[in-house]
Amino acid sequence: MTSSSDADQAGKLTLGYFEPNPHLRQPLTRIETARAVVRLAVDRSAESASRSEPTQDFLVVQHEPDRICFAVTDGVGSSFRGDRAAEMLARLVTGWMFGRPPPRSESELRDELTDYLKWIAKKFHPMILKLGIPGRPNSLVREVLEEKRKYGSEAMLACGRIDWPEEGPAQVALAWLGDACLRVVAPDGSELDLTGSTADRWSTRLGPRGRVQTRVMSADEAARVIACSDGVLAGLSSVVRLSDAELEPVLAGLAAKASSDDTALVDIALDTSAMPPVDTPADEGGTEEAFAPEEDEGAEGEGVEDENADEEVVDGPEPPEWHLTEGVLRWTSTTGAVGYHLQIGEDLGFQNPIDYHLLTTTAFVLPQLPGSTSWVRLRALAAAQPGRWGDRRMIENPLVEHTIEPKSRQLRFEVSRYRAVAKPPRDVKVDYDQEHSLLHLRWTAVRGAKTYHVQLVDDEGRLKIVPFRRNEAQVEVHQEYSVYLRSAGTDWESAWLHVGDVRTYRQ
User: Fold this and answer.
1) What's the pTM value of the predicted model, to 2 decimals?
2) Residues of the chain by 3-state class (helix, strand, coil), percent to 5
3) For a surface tag, which of 7, 84, 178, 391 has the fewest beta carbons within 10 Å of its beta carbon?
């Protein structure tokens, strides 16, 4: 089992969210949630570790008191940068499942997940094409890698969502594509394996290759749900029956073999008594402390603390250079970036920033902002990890929404993009279903928009972004959120429109 410092180094551990560091081994780790116990582990194959390469298997777990969502992905080694596809797919699918209402049927989950996998493929394949060829290969190898890059990045997927609603029965919803494995252990100890064909996978070029398969069941039918990549299959029976202390060396042994594969494992016990014990030696201590949020040692000191303090980044892309002209923030394209993360704060410490995650253009029209000045910083995002933040700079807040007029015929396409960016959806109508905690939004369609994004931001600044194809949305809300809406075209995104706060709709 891990200690607090070991866990923080190996993976990203924050309240309600976990993802591993793909460059480090994540030992078997236990998370106690409000309703379940979760065990997880990630390791590189012996070959990947010897070459200091990242794992091509990835996982993400996100939870709140009433739900757990997870995804395990297995990058296809024969594709271009399968590790990138695995990381993107796990993060995006987990966020998508977490932000939507529980599926009402297997067909609904299959159809909507299939559409979402197609949508993210269109979004990310152009970014894969821009990735550089790693290393300095000779001309023959470079030619092969360039062909692979055109073919795209691919990954297998196993994912799920477990719900414990305030009213109604608890539910387990599972989906898979490819040979990543799901095993459901019933209360009587019987086991159900759910897996697909090695020919099926998600592709950044083609979207889902093969049929997404789904299973929706009552939580009464599942004592545990286990998801893993094919590298764990040889030890899957050990996962079912062994304690943490016994299982950890088994998983380490699988990865140490010369013929080993990367491994990723998520083990969720809905019935906590169905999970094998920790059985940790006394001199190693317990496990709960590994997941307690670290205390801020400077919280009682003077001065402004940056809650989003720059973290040390070893291999992330460099921050882009940016400038502000007539309310439009423009920046240079960064090599290796698949998107950009913009923060706007009221102070130098960025205590409660406005976050714009995964901007895919190199221009952004600033929204109406409170006060006369704001602080801005920007960083590039790679599929593996974000880059470091650029310099923090103060700007004068725009007073009005800006429309840029073209100065030449060559600029018309670029200008029309900015004009669209300056126009988020309008005439938004909101209805709140108190019984089911559902927020219904409808708005006038924006010309040229391909998708719309609903962003939910809680009181601690954590956010969820849920995409929709039509000019209406239904979002499940079980806590107080500020709700924002934007439109997006093929190569542009509007500013966020603040629709309102959930607390006002509940009144």
Assistant:
1) 0.55
2) 25, 35, 40
3) 391
